[in-house]
Amino acid sequence: MKLIPLLTTLALGLTLATAAHADNRDEFSKANQLLFLTPHMDALDESGTQVRYRYERSGTHQDEDDVFSDHITLSITDVLDESFRAGEVEFLTGDRQRPFPGFRQARGNPVLAGFLQHDINRMSQASGAPVRFFQNRIKMKLEDEPVMEEVSFEFDGEEFNGHQITVTPYADDSDRSRYDREFWDKYYVFTISEDLPGYIYKLEAVAPNSNAEEPYYKDVLTLEVIDRP
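Above: the chain sequence. Below: its structure as C-alpha cells.
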C-alpha cells in the first residue's frame, strides 16, 4: 500500500489545472495553500524530534476489531535546510501498522498525506471506485468550495490560533452511484495552525449516518505530544 503519493498528487494536480498561474501561489485557494503549498516542517528543526498523533477509529459500520485507538509517529532524522526535512513515519503500530516509505525532502507534513491516502484506499476497496476518483474530488473541493473558519485550541498548555477547513467532496457529485451510499455525505475537517510545529493539530474523516447519532465511519487524528531531543 503506497501512502505518500497523495500529497504530491494533489499539489501536482492543482499546478497542472492552473498551469498559467503556476508561479503565483495566490492563485490557489487559501485552503490548498495552507495544506499543500506551505512548509509545515520549519519549526521541527532538530534531528531526533518525534511528533506523536493519536489515531481513533469508530463508527456503526466498522467491524468490532476495527474500532480502536492507536498512534502515528513522525520522526525527524535530518534537518536539510530551513524548510526541508528527512525522516520516517510509523503509521499505526503492531498488527495495524501500514507500510510508509521514509521521506528525504519533505516540506509538508507527510502525516497529512498518509491520513488521506489511508482513508481513500479504504473507500476504494469498499466501493470499487478508483482511488483517483476520490483524490480528485477532494482536490477540487479544497480549491473551489472549502469552508474556512478561524479557530483557537490548546495544546501542551499553550493556546494556538489557526484555521479549520471543512470540505464535503461527494455530496453533489452527479456520478456518486459509483460508490457506496454511506460515503455520499462524507466530510473532512482539517484543524491547523501556522504557529504549531508540524502545522497539523487535528484531521477528521466522517461519514455521517442520517438515521443515527453515530456515524457510519469516523477517523480522527489528533496531535498528542512533541518530543524534542
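The two ends are 31 Å apart (CA to CA).
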